[in-house]
Amino acid sequence: MPGKVADFLRTTELEPAERTALNQGVAVRRGQGYTLRVTAAPAVHRQLLTRCQPLDGTHGFPAVPAQRKARREYENRVSALTGRP
């Protein structure tokens, strides 16, 4: 999961399984940012992806291009993991 997505999710209210998965993730430095390696069931990744929808600029949040791209990357990774678009 891209670091921008992880940072956003840390500030939101999560279910216990989601919070545990996020807290147990391992941060890996990537250039200027980082990637959070999260081991969780595909359903948990789908729930986390749903919770980071505001990064697309909806619900009164301004759209920040880097955050939008990070969310898209995470969506692509989750889709590849679960085999669903």
Number of helices: 4
Pattern of helices and strands: HHEEHH
User: What's the count of strands?
Assistant: 2
Please state the structural category: mainly alpha
Tell me the radius of gyration: 12 Å
Give start-end ranges of low-pLDDT stretches.
none
Main sheet record? 2 strands, antiparallel
* Strand coverage percent: 5-15%
For the record, give the distance between the C-alpha atoms at the N and C termini, rounded to a whole number.
17 Å
Task: Compute the number of structural domains.
Answer: 1
* Average predicted confidence as pLDDT: 89
Strand order, sheet with most strands: 1-2
Shape: globular
Q: What would you note in describing this structure?
A:
- By secondary structure, this protein is mostly helical.
- It has one domain (3-82).
- Helices cover 52% and strands 12% of the residues.
- The chain has helices spanning 3-10, 16-23, 42-51, 65-82; strands spanning 26-30, 33-37.
- Strands 1-2 form a two-stranded antiparallel sheet.
- Helix 3 (42-51) packs antiparallel against helix 4.
Give the key terms.
2 strands, globular, mainly alpha, 85 residues
Q: What's the quick description here?
A:
The chain is mainly alpha-helical.
Strand and helix map with partners:
Elements: H1 3-10, H2 16-23, E1 26-30, E2 33-37, H3 42-51, H4 65-82
Antiparallel strand pairs: 1-2
